[in-house]
Write a structure and sequence with these properties.
Layout (H helix, E strand, L loop, with lengths): L2 E3 L16 E5 L11 E3 L6 E4 L9 E6 L11 E7 L8 E9 L7 E12 L8 E7 L1 E6 L5 E7 L5 E9 L8 E6 L2 E8 L9 E9 L7 E11 L21
Length: 248
Amino acid sequence: MLRLLKLAPLALLVPWVAQASVVWKGDFETGDLSQYTEAWFVAPDRMQVVGDLVRDGNKALKVTVQQGDNPVNASGNRNELFRGTYEPVDSEYYYKWSTLFPQDFPSSPRWQVFTQWHHDGCCGSPPLEFFVINDTMNMRVGGSSGEVLWQAPVQRDQWNDFVMHVKWSPDPNVGFVELYYNGNLVVPKRNIATRYPDTAGYIQLGYYRDATIAQTASLYHDGFTMATTLEEVMPAGGDPSTLAATAP
């Protein structure tokens, strides 16, 4: 079992006041995993920076999971990256990333998480997560009993582009989420609690799924960017002033 520790500069692991529009990039253009705080995987072939299938730039991440992969001795099977962003309560950020599901990505009634904003502490489902069940992508806020704010069919063999705007707060009257998918506003600004009380948050990017799924499978991530303005994360051609909302 292999568990790699990748330490980011200390200044980026504690709450900060963003002075530049782009706060952090995890886009793999370094050619390795050093943009992330930690990498959790059981073998080098499970977490590869590749150059043959990319969305932006020259590099992307290929994540593979086999049944039994459990580098952190927790529930489910996974290989994931972790970034200790720890956004302060009532802070507001934009996040961009792209995910590709290959043609043979499993269609399963069990959960398959591909991006999550987790909480520190013991356990339980995160306050904000993106996952697949059967052939449907979901964005859920509020943990396992929370509300699914968006669903869409899995689009295989093509890049799925996400831009998310979040205000992090345990107060449902203060916190909110807004989501663009493939350049379209699919979740207009929605007030909702985006953090559990008395917790901090961090990003997990990779592939995490129910342990009963037997098929070995991969997916790809690229272009992860965290910023303070929409302009820094909106894909080319996605002018936010002209985008109409589409039903989830």
